[in-house]
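Bumping my old thread because nobody answered last time. Still need a sequence for this structure:
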């Protein structure tokens, strides 16, 4: 079998935001990075400085773009944006905490928690719609930039899409992992185990955050 060029995807979750700390659903809505969130992505930028990265692309949402700009200050990249890398649209749940959702949208929460990939949140999108949007971008990357090393600054839901796509975990199964703010996950495409495929090389690496507070948050 001919060798395929290795395509490497460095997938970065944005830094901690105000709504992460307040445990509010973000989705398409936004809140700024906290002081700690800026420290987190600053630490990651220092870690990536000098690494051979061909392109840096961000979700077009503010928290991802702010994170990408800080990282690019170390790597020297001009950051492109792509709306397909947005978080899932949580519709009526956005901006609300879990207690607020239970009080105002208990029926929506129950259907959301049932893990039906085709359930469309009122005013938002389904898990499948979000997954297909994210993976369309991945397939374009592989078709148009084989052999490249690309860094993306995205969201917890996008990392979930990547994990499921590569591991073939069904959409109706709940998450079995966490994704820390400003963590680094690495996916590589090439000839592995006798066939062209993506593999997960690194998942949720947060070693650069030692000494900096961090925890999993929504979106």
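Sorry it took so long. Here it is:
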């Amino acid at each position: 079998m001919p060798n395929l060029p290795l395509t490497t995807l460095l997938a970065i979750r944005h830094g901690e935001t105000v709504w992460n700390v307040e445990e509010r659903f973000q989705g398409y809505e936004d809140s700024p990075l906290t002081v700690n969130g800026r420290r987190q992505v600053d630490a990651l930028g220092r870690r990536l400085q000098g690494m051979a990265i061909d392109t840096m692309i961000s979700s077009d949402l503010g928290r991802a773009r702010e994170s990408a700009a800080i990282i690019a200050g170390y790597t020297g990249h001009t950051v492109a944006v792509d709306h397909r890398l947005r978080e899932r649209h949580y519709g009526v749940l956005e901006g609300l905490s879990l207690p607020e959702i239970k009080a105002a949208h208990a029926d929506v929460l129950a259907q959301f928690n049932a893990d039906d990939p085709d359930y469309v949140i009122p005013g938002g999108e389904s898990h499948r719609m979000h997954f297909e949007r994210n993976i369309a971008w991945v397939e374009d990357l592989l078709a148009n930039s084989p052999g490249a090393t690309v860094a993306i600054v995205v969201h917890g839901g996008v990392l979930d899409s990547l994990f499921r796509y590569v591991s073939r975990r069904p959409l109706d199964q709940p998450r079995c992992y966490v994704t820390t703010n400003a963590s680094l996950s690495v996916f590589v495409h090439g000839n592995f185990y006798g066939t062209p495929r993506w593999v997960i090389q690194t998942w949720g690496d947060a070693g650069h955050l030692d000494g900096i507070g961090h925890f999993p948050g929504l979106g």
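The two ends are 40 Å apart (CA to CA). Let me know if any region looks off to you.
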